[in-house]
TrEMBL record:
Protein's UniProt name: UDP-N-acetylmuramoylalanine--D-glutamate ligase
InterPro entries: Mur-like_cat_sf (IPR036565), Mur_ligase_C (IPR004101), Mur_ligase_C_dom_sf (IPR036615), Mur_ligase_cen (IPR013221), MurD (IPR005762)
Role according to the record: Cell wall formation. Catalyzes the addition of glutamate to the nucleotide precursor UDP-N-acetylmuramoyl-L-alanine (UMA).
One Pfam family per UniProt: MurD-like_N
Organism: Parasediminibacterium paludis
Subcellular location per the Swiss-Prot or TrEMBL entry: Cytoplasm
EC number assigned by the record: 6.3.2.9
Family: Belongs to the MurCDEF family.
Record pathway: Cell wall biogenesis; peptidoglycan biosynthesis
Catalytic activity: UDP-N-acetyl-alpha-D-muramoyl-L-alanine + D-glutamate + ATP = UDP-N-acetyl-alpha-D-muramoyl-L-alanyl-D-glutamate + ADP + phosphate + H(+)
Predominant localisation class: cytoplasm
Binding site for ATP: G111, S112, N113, G114, K115, S116, T117
Length: 446
């Protein structure tokens, strides 16, 4: 009998898992409770993969030998409860990809903030050094699909806590943990400890042949490490003190010390600016040295890297008002980093689906830098309550065009408008990219 693999969820990761499962000889069925994108349907049909949309047929799903669950499906979903009750093995798409990745090297990056930037920078360094590396995972391209269609000797993967929740044997050769701040608590029973444990699963299968790169200045990481015995090679990085083996910044110099290779460069040469990006750059630099990339290539790549769309992306200056798209800021901590780097009076756009946010974290920065808040969401009560005594003007809007017009109306020459919502986008938009693109379009129409 063929191994029956059911894929729950037909997004990028689900389609990738279906293609890889089919290629490896599994009996694959994909089930999506919503509607599939036309392009994804075409791929399934072209590859002879059975699927359903708009429903989950219990008999088929519960008849599986194994289930690949989309990271977007919460455990409290009725279908998931039935699956768990029956004891069917559930894995994530990255676990399936890992099973068939051969002897490729994996660099996996996780953390509450900075994952995408650090993943893209690490990949850029690999390409600069002439390595045949794929950029996969949460950053937009399915790891499983890459393994199925175009396997590579190196994978640089952005990994979310949701993807780590359903691993079994997944083990990166190099794991990066950037930071841990309260995020996605709605998925972790509002217990921060559950989320912390999820992030640390990135190293649970590592051995003495692997590396664990982490921020030594992050108290949450430090406190957790004090309770663990780890089997991997620790390579911390810090901006507060010198590190014997790992990386640190002293004054304006970044120093990386791993084995015999030592790299030093001025932070003024980094393409990415801001304190948080100094951490991201150190992490990527250390990862590069662990896989033997020469310091000249690291220096070159770190200096000429282009930052990501929707991440502190300058859009345009309209009559002296700068518009910045940081739509990827879907939690309060990301917004904190964006505000920290602002050096102009700021009109801040907040709002969307709140994931258990504590706006007190940004209250001091808002007081110091923000002259008005424009809400872009359906329910703004929590934002208004948090800032009504701090900011003189709070305006509510429910679409990108009205939002941008309201910002422009309160802005004066020399101000900046910052879209850094601290919330998920799904109340008004398809995703954070859609939110960022609609914002940019609205700016261009001014």
């Amino acid at each position: 009998m063929k191994h029956k693999l059911v894929i729950l969820g037909g997004g990028e990761s689900g389609i990738g898992a279906a293609l890889l499962g089919k290629q490896q000889g599994y009996d694959v069925f994909l089930s999506d409770g919503g509607l599939l994108k036309a392009a994804y349907k075409q791929e399934l049909v072209a590859n002879g993969i059975a699927f359903e949309e708009g429903q989950h047929t219990a008999d088929i799903v519960l008849g599986a030998d194994e289930i690949v669950k989309s990271p977007g499906i919460p455990e409290k979903n009725d279908m998931m409860k039935a699956i768990r009750a029956k004891g069917i093995k559930v894995i994530s798409e990255i676990e399936l990809a890992y099973r068939f990745k051969g002897d490729a090297t994996i660099i996996a990056i996780t953390g509450s903030n900075g994952k995408s930037t650090t993943t893209a920078l690490t990949h850029h360094i690999c390409i600069k050094a002439g390595l045949d590396a794929a950029l996969v995972g949460n950053i937009g391209y399915s790891f499983a699909k890459q393994v199925a269609e175009n396997p590579k000797p190196y994978y640089v993967a952005e990994i979310s806590s949701f993807q780590l929740d359903d691993i079994d044997t997944f083990k990166p050769d190099v794991a990066i943990l950037l930071n841990i701040t309260e995020d996605h608590l709605d998925r972790y029973d509002y217990k921060f400890e559950n989320y912390i444990n999820s992030k640390f699963r990135i190293i649970e299968n590592q051995t003495a042949d692997d590396y664990f790169i982490y921020c030594d200045d992050d108290e949450v990481i430090q406190n957790k490490l004090n309770t663990l015995t780890i089997n991997t090679n620790p390579l911390p990085f810090s901006m507060k003190h010198e590190i014997k083996k790992g990386g640190y910044i002293k004054g304006d110099q970044m120093m990386l010390r791993i084995q015999e290779e030592r790299v030093s460069m001025s932070i003024y040469d980094f393409a990415l600016k801001g304190k948080h990006n100094n951490y991201n750059t150190m992490a990527a630099g250390i990862a590069a040295t662990t896989i033997g990339i020469r310091k000249e290539k690291i220096r070159e790549a770190v200096a000429d890297f282009q930052s990501l769309e929707h991440r502190n992306e300058f859009v345009a200056s309209v009559r002296g008002v700068a518009f910045i798209n940081d739509s990827k800021a879907t939690n309060v901590n990301s917004t904190w980093f964006a505000l920290e780097s602002m050096n102009k009076p700021t009109i801040l756009i907040l709002g969307g689906i709140d994931k258990g946010n504590d706006y007190g974290l940004i209250a001091d920065l808002v007081k110091e830098k923000v002259k008005a808040i424009v809400c872009l969401g359906k329910d703004n009560k929590k934002i208004i309550a948090a800032f009504k005594n701090i900011v003189p003007s709070i305006i509510e809007t429910d679409n990108a065009q009205d939002c941008v017009k309201a910002c422009f109306k309160v802005a004066t020459k020399g101000d900046a408008v910052l879209l850094s919502p601290a919330c998920a986008s799904f109340d008004l938009f398809k995703n954070y990219e859609d939110r960022g693109n609609q914002f940019k379009d609205a700016v261009k129409e001014l």
